[in-house]
Design brief:
Blueprint lengths: L1 H37 L5 H15 L2 E10 L4 E8 L3 H8 L3 E2 H7 L5 E2 L2 E4 L2 H5 L3 H7 L19 E7 L5 E10 L6 H46 L4 H15 L4 E7 L5 E7 L3 H10 L5 H9 L3 E3 L16 E10 L2 E11 L6 H31 L10 H18 L3 E8 L2 H8 L1 H18 L5 E6 L2 E7 L3 H16 L11 E8 L6 H17 L5 E2 L1
Parallel strand pairs: 16-17
Antiparallel strand pairs: 1-2, 1-7, 2-3, 4-5, 5-6, 6-7, 8-9, 8-12, 10-11, 11-12, 13-15, 13-16, 14-15
Helix pairs in contact: 1-2, 1-7, 2-7, 7-8, 7-11, 8-11, 13-14
GO molecular function: diguanylate cyclase activity
Pfam family, one: GAF_2
Protein name: GGDEF domain-containing protein
């Protein structure tokens, strides 16, 4: 009899062990299959779907809710579920739970392994009713089922941790499938699954960020191509901010450059009102504000929350993120590219990379416009007098004549040269002669009106374009120049006179060629008639 009882107990014990081994093997197999499934995709929504269905189909609970941490507003957002009605979940989705509420539940006394189990009986004792109201999903009209050892208001939180052990989110489960749950045994497999799920979610986020970065880099490339097509600074800047706004709608962009007084000035912008920019321009000073700090230290800045940065001098009624990058060319720092976006952490590390690349391309493009303008200036400038040369004169004459025809207004040209200039070179030398030409050039520049164009033709000859000026007033200007030259002491006290020829559109001709022929003839006649006179 005793032998029989002993054998029965032994068989029963062995059976229990076999059942436990089978259960463990089943759990391991389930985890293995779920891991393979999770690792098969980088699609974020697909991973969430796998997580929720796995828990309700294989891990012992009828209801699961996935909440992810939102760093921007320090809250938990419900993003996926299984076992709830769409109506209930839609209501939950709209409610963000402050992370402080979750932390209130993740106390050491509720810890089981890496998870947290809060029995409903603990609620009143620990004054957690308010916390429960904030995270519970059972709506009043839903009648909770009776469970052997699980109450509908019990809470089981399984945290989702990143590789750096930072909180990614939480899983909350309810309604055990067999109406009974062994918390200790359930935690084991749930946590193992949660760890794999967290890695998959983190990888999916990284993959998504990488995809977004690639798309942003493609947009940066498009903007760079656009910038290469502009060689004038004003056009370059306006097209840059326009293209940036089109490709990155959340970017409020401003380009700040040093003006002629070496002061910071916003040259162009998008996403702001003119009035706001006017106010900010008045506040821009070296060392003040985030932009001023960047200008002073020549160092990029990434501010995640402008309201918490004492350097910020803009709007304080809303939270902003800001990135400010120095613009540096071959001649040094010329300004700053500043990007703002509404919301805390609305500009992340990828945005910082993007803005840095944009700033680098913009700096190169601005430098190219400077070089182009300098090359153009040299090509259009007389090296002796530093005034425009004959090449520029012809270009401007064509433009002004076209404008005069369009507006039906007159246009006049003066052509003058120094009388007996050869004698100055013979008596004083060519170096003194050059100085006399430079003195005369400066006198002409100081005498004409704003908008008049003075150019050196070559040798001792000069052209002056007088837009919107008729014959009578042109003669008065010529007389003024003639008299002023006569009473001026030039280099070495040299006295000179000039002969002037004048011509006017439309009276004397309506083409560049005709006007130039007539003004040349007029000057020749003035010299033939005795010099030191005006003819036209």
């Amino acid at each position: 009899g005793l032998t029989k009882i002993y054998l029965q107990q032994k068989l029963s014990s062995e059976k229990d062990i076999e059942e436990k081994i089978a259960t463990v093997n089943k759990k391991l197999h389930t985890l293995q299959q779920l891991t393979i499934l999770l690792q098969s995709t980088f699609d974020f929504d697909r991973i969430l779907d796998i997580i929720t269905k796995a828990i309700t189909s294989s891990l012992g609970f009828s209801v699961v809710l996935v909440s992810l941490y939102n760093e921007k507003d320090d809250s938990m957002e419900r993003v996926a579920q299984n076992g709830l009605s769409e109506k209930v979940f839609e209501k939950l989705r709209k409610q963000k739970v402050p992370f402080s509420t979750i932390k209130n539940l993740m106390q050491e006394r509720f810890r089981i392994s890496k998870s947290f189990y809060i029995n409903h009986k603990e609620m009143d004792l620990n004054n957690l009713d308010k916390t429960i109201d904030q995270i519970a999903y059972i709506i009043p009209e839903e009648k909770p089922e009776e469970y052997i050892n699980w109450h509908p208001e019990d809470i089981l939180i399984i945290p989702l941790y990143s590789k750096e052990n930072k909180i990614l989110g939480i899983l909350t489960v309810d309604k055990p499938v067999n109406r009974y749950v062994n918390i200790i045994e359930s935690i084991d497999i749930l946590e193992s699954f949660a760890q794999t799920a967290a890695i998959s979610l983190e990888n999916a986020k990284l993959f998504s960020k990488m995809e977004q970065l690639i798309k942003k880099l493609e947009k940066v490339s498009n903007i760079s191509v656009l910038m290469n097509s502009h060689i004038q600074l004003e056009n370059l800047l306006s097209h840059f901010v326009q293209a940036t706004k089109e490709n990155f709608p959340n970017y409020n962009t401003s380009i700040i450059l040093y003006n002629q007084f070496n002061e910071l000035e916003i040259k162009t912008y998008s996403g702001y009102t003119d009035k706001y920019i006017e106010r900010i321009n008045e506040m821009l000073k070296m060392g003040e504000g985030i932009v001023g700090w960047v200008a002073e230290h020549k160092t990029p800045v990434h501010v995640k929350d402008t309201r918490s940065d004492p350097r910020f001098v803009g709007r304080l009624d809303v939270s902003m993120s800001e990135i400010a990058i120095p613009l540096e060319t071959s001649s040094g720092m010329i300004g700053i590219l500043d990007i703002e976006s509404e919301g805390v952490n609305s500009l992340d590390e990828n945005d910082f990379r993007i803005v840095s690349i944009l700033a680098s391309h913009l700096s190169i493009s601005i430098d190219n416009t400077f070089k182009y303008e300098e090359t153009k200036r040299i090509a259009n400038t007389d090296p002796l007098t530093d005034m425009y040369n004959y090449r520029f004169f012809i270009e401007k004459l064509k433009e002004e004549l076209e404008r005069s025809k369009k507006l039906s207004i007159p246009l006049s040209i003066l052509m003058l040269d120094i009388d007996y200039f050869k004698e100055i070179n013979d008596n004083y030398g060519h170096m003194i002669g050059d100085l006399v030409i430079r003195d005369l050039a400066q006198l002409l520049l100081n005498t004409v009106r704003k908008g008049d164009i003075v150019t050196r033709y070559g040798g001792d000859e000069f052209f002056i374009i007088l837009p919107g000026t008729g014959k009578q007033f042109t003669h008065s200007i010529a007389e003024k120049i003639n008299k002023l030259v006569k009473k001026t002491n030039f280099t070495n006290g040299i006295k000179i006179t000039v002969s002037v020829g004048t011509v006017t559109y439309p009276d004397d001709g309506d083409s560049v060629e005709t006007l130039l022929k007539w003004v040349d003839d007029a000057l020749y006649d003035a010299k033939r008639k005795g010099r030191d006179r005006i003819n036209g």
